[in-house]
Design brief:
The protein has 4 helices and no strands. By secondary structure, the protein is mostly helical. Helix 1 packs antiparallel against helix 2.
Length: about 130
C-alpha cells in the first residue's frame, strides 16, 4: 500500500505544480499583452494549460485505481503497474512542457500517453478481478 500512497501523492502534487505553471504563464502572457485563451499550439500558455488539463483528466482515476489495487492486490507485479502508470503520467507531462509546439508529436509524449492507457487499463482489470 505504501507504493500506492506515494505514487498517489506524486501525481496529486503534479496537478498542483502544473496548475501553478499555468498561473505563471498567464502572468507572462498578461505582461506581454498576449491572449489568456490562446489557440496557437506553440503558445507557452496553451502548452501549460493542456499539460495541466490532460493530467487533470487522468490523475484522479489513476489515484483511485492505485488505492484500490494497493489495498486489494498488493503483489509486486501490481505495485509495478502503479509505478509504471506514475512514470507514464510524469513522462507525458514533461514531454508536453518541453515541446516547442503541441502540433508536433514526440516519442516520449506518445510513450507517456500509451503507457497511461495500457497501465491504467491493466490496473482497472486488476481492481475488477481482485474484487471477484
Amino acid at each position: 500500500m505504501t507504493t500506492a500512497i506515494i505514487c498517489s501523492a506524486v501525481l496529486a502534487a503534479s496537478i498542483f505544480v502544473l496548475g501553478f505553471n499555468v498561473s505563471l504563464n498567464r502572468g507572462y502572457a498578461a505582461k506581454r499583452g498576449g491572449s489568456q485563451m490562446p489557440t496557437d499550439p506553440a503558445d507557452p500558455l496553451l502548452i501549460a494549460q493542456r499539460a495541466h488539463g490532460n493530467a487533470a483528466e487522468y490523475v484522479p482515476t489513476l489515484i483511485a485505481l492505485f488505492l484500490l489495487v494497493g489495498w486489494q492486490s498488493p503483489q509486486p507485479w501490481a505495485q509495478g503497474l502503479i509505478v509504471l502508470a506514475t512514470a507514464s503520467r510524469l513522462l507525458h507531462a514533461v514531454s508536453m512542457l518541453r515541446s516547442a509546439s503541441l502540433a508536433a508529436e514526440s516519442a516520449p509524449r506518445m510513450t507517456g500517453a500509451m503507457g497511461t492507457y495500457a497501465f491504467g487499463l491493466a490496473l482497472a482489470v486488476t481492481a475488477g478481478v481482485a474484487a471477484i
